[in-house]
Automatic annotation (TrEMBL):
GO terms for cellular component: cytosol. The lineage of its organism: Bacteria, Pseudomonadati, Pseudomonadota, Gammaproteobacteria, Aeromonadales. Signal peptide: none annotated. The keyword Coiled coil applies. Residues 65-95 form a coiled coil. This is Transcriptional regulator.
Amino acid sequence: MDLKQLTYLVAVADTGSFTAAAQRHHVAQSAVSMAIARLEQRLELKLFERQDRRVRITPEGEVLLTHARRLLQQAERAEREMEELKSLVRGEVRIGIPFMMGSYFFPPILMAFKHRFPGLRIEVDEAGTRDLLSRMATGELDLAILIASDLPAELVGARLVREEMVAVVGQDHPWRAEPSITLETFFEEELALFRQGFYHREHMESLAREAGVTPRIAFESNLIPLHKAVVRQGFAVSTLLRMAIEEDDDLFAVPFTPPIYLELCVAWHRDETLSRANRALRDFLLEQCPA
C-alpha cells in the first residue's frame, strides 16, 4: 500500500462517499475507486460496504483506518521537518573547540550564530587537540577547531584566525617590563603547562628540544584558571594564547623573540558531506573570522 491509497481511504471514511472524497483531493472519482479496489485486492479484505450511493467502512477497514491516520500524520511531520531543515529552522551541529578558544574567543560567535538560527541545537565539546582529532576520527564531531599545520589527510580545513603564543607573568615579575624574551630565557623559569595531549604543550616541548633544553615544569594542569592563579602568586610563568589574558589586568603578555603564532582552522571530514546545519556553522565562522 502507498500513502495515496491511505489518503483516499481516510477521505472516503470521513465523507462516506467516493464522489466527495474525490472532490476533496481534486481528482476523478474513478481514481479514488480504483485506489480503494487495488488496496482491497492486495489485502484480500473488504474495506467498505457499498449501499446505494453511500459507503460504510467495515470493521476491517476501521482497523486499517487507525493505522492510516497515524501513518499520514507521521509522513506529514517528516515532510514538515525536512522543510524546516531546508530553511535551517531545526537541526543539530557538533563542534569541538580547544579549551582556550572555547573560553575566550568562541562564546560570542556561537551566541551570534544561535541568534541567527535559533532553532538549531549546538553541541560544543571542549578538549585538547589530540582528543578533538580522535573524536573527529570516530564521527563524534562534525566540525573542530584545530591547528592548521596539524591536520591529518582525512580532514580538510579553512583558516579562521592567527593567534600569538605569549609568555604570561604576574605584575611583580621582572619580565613585565621586557618588550620580548627568548625561548631560552623562558625555559630557565619554572613553568605551568598543559598536560600531555594538548598541542600547546607538545609545541612547547618541541621548541625546547630544538633549543636543547629540558623544560622545568612546576605545575601541570588543563585548567586555565589554575594557570593564571599560579602565575599571579609568582610560583611559575606560563604560556597561553594572547586572547586568554586580554581581560586580566594583573597578568601580562610578553612576546617571544622570534614571535610564535598558531594558525587555527575549522576542519571537517574530507570525504563526508556536511549537513546543511553544519555547513551553516562553518560558513558563519568563516564570515566572523575573515582570514
